[in-house]
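To close the chapter, one final illustration. This time we ask the reader to focus less on the individual chains and more on the assembly as a whole: which components sit near each other, and how the overall shape emerges from the parts.
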Amino acid sequence: MNDLQTLFKGVVADPPPPSEIPSQAVFARIRKVRRRRAAGGAVLATAAVAAVVAIAGNLNSTNSQPPVLAPPPVVQLPVGAVSIEMVPTVVGKVGKMAVTMRGTVRVPLSGGDYLPTDNSFIDMSTGFTATWGQGEPDGGDGGAISCEGSTKETTGAVTYHLDPHAYPKPGTYTVKFAVKFCGPTGDVTSTKSVQLVIK
Amino acid sequence: MDPGRDQEFAEFVDGRFTALQRFGYLLTGEWHLAEDLVQTALTKVWFHRNSLRSANALESYTRTAMVNTSTQWWRRKWRGETPTEIMPEPAGDSPYGVVDDRDLLLRALATLPRRTRATLVLRYFEDLPEAEIAQIMGCSVGTVKSNVSRGLAKLREHQLVAGISAPGMKAVES
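The assembled structure is written out below.
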């Protein structure tokens, strides 16, 4: 008869040495996050200034009415379906892809509990696949999570960067992305494709 | 940054890294992911260090961050692989039996929901009481008990751990 604790201890008996000095690696990450947050704040501040300038430019006198901005077009997607925007970049023969997903989905369950919704929206997905039009596909799954029994909804957006893909030769390639989120009756797959020109 | 507190945090990181890495390995099943998980969790903890009640809470808080990160992590990336829920039968006696056993245990663990897996690791590797596990997992003691029970039942479906014994649980003869 096995003892679970002994089995666990056997499994972790020989950890490899850390690839870097742990504290240095952690503080390098901390500095990176701080820089990213600072850069994000700067972008927001710039955007706010630009918005104020744009609105002020529409005011001709003290009697001017505030500009009436047309509301953005609303595309009502069913729960579980997400809108996908793909922004490719090409460096040499390497393709990169930023995929933005937004929508309202059911919150998946893990071990009978709802996943927390205060993290990245991508955590709500039950999986994705990406094909680059050449070579091995890329993909991921959401782990041991399930849509079954979920009644809780969440709305969110995320930009996910696919692993870069190196093409062997020039050409026009179709990059396809499919992602699954939970809807009222299970997984809902949303897809999008774009063309990538490799010179 | 406060140099004194950073020094204290760095000492904690260097001193406890291997123990946390082991815990991370049981949560993820891969050493490099375990290292990544520990670093990610410690980075999160550093940004919340002011809300810690005491320095003693650091390790507990780090484990909470690791569990939360691992259960939410979108890291099960694949490239051209075909995932399967059914494990192949082991090949029988082997000079690499110990290594095989480790592999089988990890594969059995991988079939569990992530929170159930984390609960089992906290209970039987870290040897934590159910109340502390409930605090780390952000759930009730009852949920911890049912996760442990379901997790052990699921593990026992696998050959290596069919007759597994675990303190506080009724053992099943193989």
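The first helix of chain A runs from residue 4 to 11. Helices of chain A lie at 4-11, 22-57. With these observations in hand, you are ready for the problems at the end of the chapter.
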